[in-house]
Design brief:
The complex is a heterotrimer of chains A (about 190), B (about 250) and C (about 450). Chain B is mainly α. Chain B contains eleven helices and two strands; from the N terminus they run ααααββααααααα. Chain B has two domains: about 150 residues, no CATH class; about 70 residues, no CATH class. Chain B has a two-stranded antiparallel sheet. Chain B is globular, with a radius of gyration of 24 Å. The two termini of chain B are about 35 Å apart. The chains are: A mainly alpha (about 190), B mainly alpha (about 250), C alpha/beta (about 450). Chains A and C meet through loops of A and loops of C. The complex binds adenosine-5'-triphosphate (2 copies) and magnesium ion (2 copies).
Amino acid sequence: MLKSWKLKEIVLMSLFAVVFGIVYLLFLHVGNIWAGFIGPIAYEWIFGIWFIVSIICMYIIRKPGAAVVSETIAAAIEVLLGNAVGPRLILSGIVQGLGAEAVFAATRYKRFDLWVLMLAGVGSSIFSFVYGYFLGGFSVYSTGYVALMLGIRILSGAMIAGIGGKAVADGLLATGSLRGYAISRSKKGEARA
Amino acid sequence: MKNALHRMNPSVKFLAITICMFTMAFFFDPWTPLVFWAGVLVLQFFFSEINWKRWLLFMLPFFVTSFGYFWTTLVFAEDSSGSVVWSIWNLQITETQLNHALSLSFRVLAFSSLSLLFALTTNPVTFILSLMQQLRLSPKIAYGVMVGYQFLPVLKDEFVQIGQAHRLRGAGGEKNTLQRLLGVRRILIPMLAGAVRKAERAAFAMEARGFTGERRSSYFRVISMGKLDIALVSLFLFLLVLSCTHIWWLG
Amino acid sequence: MHEVIHFDKVSFRYPDEEKWILEELSFTIQRGERVVITGPSGCGKTTLLYLCNRLYPDNCDGILLGSVKLFGKNSSSFIPGEINHRIATVFQDPDSQFCMQTVEEELAFTLENLHVKRDEMENRIRDVLALTDLTEFRYAVIQKLSGGQKQRIATACALIMKPEVLLLDEPLSHLDPFTAKKYVEWLDELQQKCAMTIVAIEHRLDLWGDFFERSISLNKNEMAPILIKRKSSKQKNDSLVVNKLQANTYLQETSFTLKRGEVAVLAGPNGSGKSTLLKALCELIPSSGSVESKLLGYVPQSPEFLFLTKNVRDEVGFGGGDNTEELLARLQLLPIADSHPFAVSHGQKRRVAIAAMLSDGREVILMDEPTSGQDAKALSELFQLIDERAREGTTFLIVTHDMEFAYCLADSILLMNDGRLTGQFNADIVWSDDHLLMDHNLLSPKEVILREKCFA
Ligand SMILES: Nc1ncnc2c1ncn2[C@@H]1O[C@H](COP(=O)(O)OP(=O)(O)OP(=O)(O)O)[C@@H](O)[C@H]1O
Ligand SMILES: Nc1ncnc2c1ncn2[C@@H]1O[C@H](COP(=O)(O)OP(=O)(O)OP(=O)(O)O)[C@@H](O)[C@H]1O
Ligand SMILES: [Mg+2]
Ligand SMILES: [Mg+2]
């Protein structure tokens, strides 16, 4: 898989990961404070922000693996930035990335419409929730509460990661700096067709 | 001996910590995470030279989170069997509920300090090199991450500089908060655009230096593994077993 | 087989542009040759170089016709990075050619890529640093070095590979005159010792003496009028008053005053703090002290981060000036007026930034090495523009390593050394004071002075 990747695509993911790593870190603190008042459900509203990088990178690069690899790199960078959640985050990153990847793989990396991106956000939400269910010990909560958490997370994944991710990537595309990446090629193809 | 955790091989440390966390996830009594947490603090006290003030600063938000877990578990717990130990207003709190609540909040503390132990005793660059040398991470990814990490200070400066540059060009200069918030979007996109360009340049530079992405035959900085790592891993495992088997020795 | 690089009817264009940058270009470079590639700014020299080291067409989806052969093999038969074990490159923009944090790491990274044995690495690093006279920078953080220092480091990184071919993209453009002269002498020696093939891009051949054996010209160089010393347009009242300015531990307390319509040149060795001073003046870095002036304009050494819009025309007209078209035409930007400011050549980027600053009526304009990477025509046009604006009352502070340009332009000269402003001199005094020149790594522009004597 790595063979087909250009070096500049990998470095791009890594630099995006740094930018969003800074954003994530900001949100983690916000989430932590909230969690003190309203419990673990505090994270659910903003959970989508953690998936955004995988969706942006996949939308731009459009190669198998872009979602998992970028999300994992983002998590790794966050750990390197001295995030207190630490090494565990790398595993969360892999799991979240896999969720989005699964959706893109199901479309055979051919479709990148808004609804696919939103579904990818939902994919990340579900995968990460299962993982969180286990590590966070959610099994002690009542079913209703767990269902509520899941519902909010799915919504957040679809809205923040799906819609937000597309908005950011499209904004970037409009600046003309994404020349030489798959996203520009496809836009041209559509225009010509 | 005081700096043993700093000298420990980062990959080994990473694996040891991950194993500990996954094992802990199976326990729902308050004592296991509590004993483990205490153990981590002891390890940290004897084998690392961290700044405890900094530690406390990082830990503070997690104390808050842990409290959040505590009361939500009390309220929303599934299993409400066992004798009632506590009742406030019309809320009946049973022993199982209390145990679960305590367990989850201690778990948060144990996980956080374990993670902090890693973060505060590990040099990022050494960690990446070690991932490549010990865990056979692909050099393409490893160096990609390293380059990204090294651009961190640059990107931070850029955040300020872009704002300044906009003002220099006659853009920006918003007064009220709302305009400023909208201004952040004006900075985020150029920052990402800058990141795209930097990525391309850095990739060109790497390629021009002969980087093909294949495995290297020798390293300038070798990250080694040794007796120290075996000793520390044993300590971690001992601590893990100790806290998981507390039923027997605590009675 | 002695053909190192062989182009056969090569045409190349970027995917989004209609225009072919290179058309039916054929040439051959033999082992051990010293070749210079010349041509006006924006004619495709850098693009050509990128084809020689195989970065293009792979990395930009460019369209390539004809055949490029490297060491007798088709260039597309190499995997990315493979050919770069034998062909080393020094890029044009000093800011964007490194991937590691410190000089030592960068060098070690290169050696690892070449599969050098570990016990050999230390020696090779030490040797190349001694050879390039950069030993003091071994543990320096690259991002913090000055433009000229970075360019020298880049050469060291290329040489540590012991390459068969060395590609240089305007290697002197950010070096101070004395260092540039030494660089050429040293490269000459080196080439004779290890018989490298050297291919360089250069606008101004006078600094190189008779270094090159042969030149490949990409485009007919149009004749440009020679520069003639301008008359001072300095007026009475002050327009920039700097008082006890100090920044980031390197720049020491600086005070000076510039008058309306004054053109001042700031010169000094690489790493003496010129760029730092300009950044402090327009508050890009934290500083103490006071700067009194109205509406400052600034053209940075690497101008990219100033760009805000999607095409060159908007970029120049951003401040709302009404002479955008005239500026575009005069600075030869019309052909690229609709291109994205990031996707133009290095020299063009610089001119875009200059045009943007000149277009909207700023009273003081600071320029950091506006002359680097410009061809003779652009240089003369820039000279005229500055002269006109100065007559209208604009004040200029210009950093340059081009002594000829400085000689013809400057009313006064500010000299810097080791982070300190050593003085503000009347221009004529500086050119005749050999000690002063030597202390600041400058050379007197003998040819121009001679030319002037003939005219007189
Ligand atoms: N990435 C790009 N995408 C599209 N066009 C480009 C790109 N880079 C350069 N160009 C165009 O190609 C032409 C040649 O650029 P190149 O950088 O090769 O010029 P150059 O001869 O090196 O100029 P200079 O002396 O100013 O560095 C320019 O007109 C420029 O506008
Ligand atoms: N961000 C920084 N932090 C610390 N030191 C710096 C920083 N930027 C530059 N320096 C140091 O300040 C000195 C002056 O750098 P500056 O870029 O001002 O030089 P310069 O006179 O413009 O040189 P050049 O002609 O090579 O461009 C250099 O020695 C450099 O190491
Ligand atoms: Mg060029
Ligand atoms: Mg400079």
